[in-house]
């Protein structure tokens, strides 16, 4: 399906707050979890900031190692420190029974101590020791997929929002590699392949879809590497590593507090990269300022209103922010006689990126504004690529695959 019709409604003013809302939606998952083990989580954040900002201009053998590898280096250093502290007994449970659920622990001291030790230790999941060296995944390995129309409808809407994120990433990447903005045909091809990859991910039972990662745009900007061969080689390496069970076990052994610390950096980057799309429009325009401001504010405020229905005031249950939409689905403010409609509306309006997209796309397409003010004139230049052979070659499928799919319109320029 072509994206020509939606493309007319999606402009930089819409893409910017939508992507930023994805990053901001994890604010309640970041530092609140880091606080469970400050000496690990806070160090993780400080090390990444030190490498990415203060040491970013230092070169080692002609490469800015600290800037390019800020996140993996920070993760390796902090995990090593946590591993040494765990093996040295610094994070022992001191007589508290870890097998008793936290809600059933009588001692207040043990309740807090067990939570802190589980957040700091690297062997809580025991995944590194129990995982096999090699494991070959196969389709339908977790059984036959189950279809629920309510969840399917929610995921269709979320997929549309993810496509908006992808459109912004495609345009940002094209400027970094000194090429023309992608044409609607190229955008359709990219989004179509993301959908195909999501189908394959569902067959293999990964539990997640496939979409472009906005942080990789920053990676291209830092490394100055936009080669298809480099990306293809990296993909092959990741496929091989996915067959090594110990790699997955190692990732599972990373303390949750370190994951939260990384998200404090990564999702902050995502929010900033989302807002950077405003450079395609008149960022100082009062029209755009109001639209972006309202979109971001309501993307946090409206889900907060819906989330207050998720858990009763007398409940001690603590649910992470990314699980709350599923709790709210059955207890949200929409309570009509149609249960399925209630489920869909309560879930959608509790998702930050959905609210940001709806507010932005409605306001941007109804409030009068010039093409230059909205940024349409920049993205519409993609049509020039059809008349430039050199640019058209950049967007052709590799290995002459385009010849095989010549009959499919959405794979072309």
UniProtKB/TrEMBL annotation:
InterPro entries: NCS2. GO terms for molecular function: transmembrane transporter activity. Signal peptide: none annotated. GO terms for cellular component: membrane. Keywords: Membrane, Transmembrane, Transmembrane helix. It is a multi-pass membrane protein. The chain crosses the membrane at residues 9-27, 33-54, 66-85, 146-164, 230-251, 257-276, 288-306, 343-363. It comes from the Eukaryota. PANTHER family: XANTHINE-URACIL / VITAMIN C PERMEASE FAMILY MEMBER. Belongs to the nucleobase:cation symporter-2 (NCS2) (TC 2.A.40) family. This is Nucleobase-ascorbate transporter 12. It comes from Malus baccata (Siberian crab apple).
